[in-house]
Amino acid sequence: MLPSPAVAKYKRKRLVASPRKRIVETLTTRSRITNLGVYLLVGLCAVSLLLNLRYWTFHQSVHQYSNRGHPGPLSLATTKRPSTRKGLNHLIIVPCHSIWKGTSSWSDEKDWILESYQKGAGRVHAFYEHITQSVEIAQKDPHSLLVFSGGQTRPRSTTTEAESYLRLAQSAGLFPEPKPDSLPFERATTENYALDSYQNLLFSIARFREFTGHFPSLVTVVGYEFKRPRFTELHREALRWPINKFTYVGVDPEHVDSSIVIQGEKQNGYIPYTLDKYGCHSMLLTKRRQRNPYSRFHPYYTSAPELAPLLDWCPGAAQGGEATLFEENLPWDHLKILRDS
Predict the structure, then answer these.
(1) 241 to each of 13, 199, 233, 299, how far by Cα in Å?
(2) 279, 322 in Cβ contact below 8 A?
(3) Are the beta carbons of 261 and 249 closer than 8 angstroms?
(4) Cβ of 66: how many Cβ atoms within 10 Å?
(5) How far is Cα 132 from Cα 170, in angstroms, rounded to an integer?
């Protein structure tokens, strides 16, 4: 027998691939493509299972918490609203302009913490008239809630504008005699975070929701007559509040040059809010910061969560400009059907 050819002694050696390369080849080889799909599906199913388990566990805990009589965030567990507040539907707002010092009188400028432009022209008498007229309106309507609105705007004061107005109303005997262990007036409260007129309106609506558990269907503002256009044409429109559900009661200082005041309001209020409807840019934002020396911020994301998107609305170029209206759903949209009634 002839010997085998010499070439037969040389067998082709197989290259040993790295573990990582073998895994890649296993998953991507045409015959193994099913394995890759299976592994991906298993991974996605595992992630989905974990997310659903987390979601279910969270909502079960919320449900159990709600069943214990504490709906919503834990911070709301400390609130208990009397059943009498369920019938309230009329919000009366007094935008505050200064802080009463709490002295034995109110009629002198020294009794108030005033800005330089507020001195003279009998402005403090206008403040008091805003308070008295709002109290009268509230007493005539048993379904109303009176809200004094104004934050802690003065560095020299440890209280808010709103709290000082409410104390003055109580000290002056404007409210009926309260029942023992009750509020000075069951249908009067404060909104302590507003820093400008737009926030006076928006935050007071949020405070109504916080105080009663629901939103108002009527709004009355008692303030300066020369600010009527700002509230009725700009702020009301910014909130898309129906015009037939909105009333403005104007009271100006007695000794004031109306032409000068109206011109000042136009330059410092009406025109800026026409250009920056929500007051969150440039000059109007700077004013808010200057009026917030104690770095306070409102609680309405928690107590009025339905308003969270509106509270955060600050339109810019991407939204069509700084005067672009908020267009998402609002709790009072159902009132629109009554506009023509």
Answers:
(1) 84, 14, 10, 22
(2) no
(3) no
(4) 11
(5) 11
Environment class of 195 (CB within 10 Å of its CB; exposed 0-12, middle 13-18, buried 19+): buried
Which residue in this structure is represented by tokens 């339109």? 315
Give the pLDDT band (50/70/90) at residue 24.
Answer: low
In angstroms and rounded to an integer, the radius of gyration of the C-alpha atoms of the chain is: 32
Q: Are 150 and 127 in contact (CB under 8 A)?
A: no
Q: Which 3-state string (H, E, C) describes 301-336?
A: HHHCHHHHHHHCCCCCHHHCCCCCCCCCCCCCHHHH
Number of H helices, E strands in the chain: 12, 7
Bridge partner list, 190 = 148
Burial of 304 (0-12, 13-18, 19+ CB in 10 A): buried
Q: Which amino acid type is present at position 24? A: V
Res 50 pLDDT > 70: yes
For residue 247, give the DSSP letter.
E
How many other β-carbons are positioned within 10 Å of the β-carbon of residue 189? 22
- pLDDT, tens digit, for every residue of 123-134? 999 999 999 999
pTM: 0.78
Tokens describing residue 299: 């609680």
Question: For tokens 């082709």, what's the residue?
Answer: 12
| 3-class DSSP state of 259 | helix
Which helix H or strand E contains 286, and what residues bound it?
A: helix 282-290
91: helix, coil or strand?
strand
**Helices 161-171/123-140 angle, 10° precision:** 70
Residue 148, number of CB atoms within 10 A of its CB = 31
CA–CA dist 224, 182 (Å, integer)? 31
Give 280-297 pLDDT, tens digit per residue: 999 999 999 999 999 999
**Residue 177: is it exposed, middle or buried by C-beta count within 10 angstroms (0-12/13-18/19+)?**
exposed
Angle made by CA atoms 235, 238, 243, in degrees to the nearest 5: 70
Please report how the helices 33-67 and 19-28 are oriented relative to each other, as an axis angle in degrees rounded to 10.
Answer: 90
